[in-house]
Amino acid sequence: MLTIIILALIAIVVLFAVKNIRMQFITRPVFSFFKKVLPPLSDTEREAMEAGDVWWEGELFRGNPNWNTLHSYGKPTLSAEEKDFIDNQVMTALTMIDDFDIVHNRKDLPPELWEYFKKEGFFALIIPKKFGGKAFSAYANSTIVSKLASRSVSAAVTVMVPNSLGPGELLTHYGTSEQKERWLPALAKGDEIPCFALTGPEAGSDAGAIPDVGIVCRDTFNGEEMLGLKLTWDKRYITLAPVATVLGLAFQMRDPEGLLGDKKNLGITCALIPTDHPGVVIGRRHNPLGMAFMNGTTQGKEVFIPLDWIIGGPEFAGKGWRMLVECLSAGRGISLPALATASGHMATKTTTAYSYVRHQFGMAIGQFEGVQEALARIIANTYQLEAARRLTTTGIDLKVKPSVVTAIAKYHMTELGRSVMNDAMDIQSGKGIQLGPKNYLGHPYMSNPISITVEGANILTRSLMIFGQGATRCHPYVLAEMEAAAMENQHEALERFDALLMGHMGYATRNAFSALFSALSGSRFGSAPVSGETKQYYKDMSRISSALALMTDLSMLIMGGDLKRKEMLSARMGDVLSQLYLGSATLKLFEDNGRQQDDLPAVRYVMANRLHLATKALEYTIRNFPSRPVAWLLRGLIFPLGNHFTAPSDKMATDLVGGMLKPGPARERITFLCPEFEGDKGGIAEVEQAFVAQYACKDIYKKLKKAQRAGELPAKVPNLVLFAKALETGVITADEEQKLQHADKLRLAAINVNDFEAL
Is the pTM of this model over 0.90? Predict the structure, then answer.
């Protein structure tokens, strides 16, 4: 028997170690199989993959994250100039905002706010300083948009769009010198208002399928015959279009007469066109869920433009898709996540305050466990939103283009924003549904689906983009193997594939053993870059990373190109990657904040949820895996002892809420994007002042409760009567009665809502 085992081992060693034998019996058959199951890539898919960079998500995808790399990225900070702008210009802008008036009366920003935004450079945050811009960091850009969004989504979107996907960004990265000199200074000063037209009736999330066309031809422009384009387009959902003076346009460029060369279909191209150019039509305005930011349509039919109006000049003809993907990924990681994070900061600030000052059944509603359950989700999701905002903008500021990370940020952060607003509405109830100047929840709640929908619908972002791009871009071997399979020289292709295959097999084997060993040992022997309570979270995430890498390899092996069509499966595997990314962001925020002990309740709750959701996604993928033998193998390797990661406990929720129903540094760290200021017209300062005043009286209220239990004071009387009786009986002093009366006046103002003449 021993002889047979030894001979078998020798045969295996020879099979893999002797190249000629390996090539004949392993590499050639696998190469042939790989080419058959290789998922077909369209040109737009290939360009999208090549356009993005692999960043931290690559570490998470490969089964053995280097956590020191995560910590090495540094803490995002504001420069002195950025901080000064936020402390002064942004705060001044906030005092000029009356969102109820903007949305319900004007249907637009007031003229003085438009002028202030232009004059102070709010539309120039990303434009280089040499052209009159601010050249602010992604973190600063995000912070500015978030603070504006804490008071008005309409104002925030108006500032957000020129500093996201649009002419300014495209010109900065790709424009010719002449285009930059012509447009960027005017855009920086607000003399020109930009919009970018990509979406149309037949092309939404599938932006690569735009039917709008530009035909290369000769025509006359300014009395001179020249080579140019005749453009025909029909676009909708274009933010700022109704007020834009310059239109960025994406279209399919064609050269049927071969005026530029042999290629007839050049592909997606981007051009810049003044809106007063003959033939340009700025159409009717949309009404995006009642919000007041400008959004509308634009059309044109056979509009002739010179070739040098192509962004980047004629040599960038057909390169528009790659340009858009690169710029879109940055905007997707800054703008929409900023809106979601603002919702979290505002909801946490106001809902913790409201839960303290709103009383029912003789006690603050924040003391009811049912309310605490929803309140804990709000607080934890806000901590998560802030963590993801910081890590994602850190990547962008490192000058990488992390397309998978920004897809994760866009999808999960807007969904977390939706969850936060739903819970805040449930807790504040009547206060939230009665629209008026004092209502700070209504407009963010109503506008939330806008973020869910734009820059790629969330359903498709989750089911097609996150894992679809991540599996190929982040895998250490698959993209290189695909490139080898596409090589024309078959001998060179086979040689290249052989080297990759050996590495791939070792990689897959390591991940299988790592997943199994970590599962059996409870990840006790994994490495972590820190000590203390958060140490185990790093180990558990490394275990899940190995499981994801193993599952990805087996999924691609079994399903091949069909994996693209198994959207529910690929979405769940994308969820695993996403939860690992969000968990990484949470742990990094805890480190960046200096490991504050009062942050630990939020970290515990968030990380329990991240690990629970990640392993639940793994479990559901195994349950629905098309090959049952492979599913059994995966379950045996990943969950040999079962899945013991559970949702956050009730104690985690009550501990988290208990620490947030009082003023303090932990609460300030996840509400600072919703600042207080004198003259706040939106009700936020009102409820915060009531909260602070009520909390300052907590010891006086304890005296009243004690006296009521002893029968010295009546139990159920109006507050002012109770205060007077307490003073009369000597339970409290005159000074304490004055404090109670002041706090109660603020409380009543905070819980009251607006009313109007009969409508």
Answer: yes
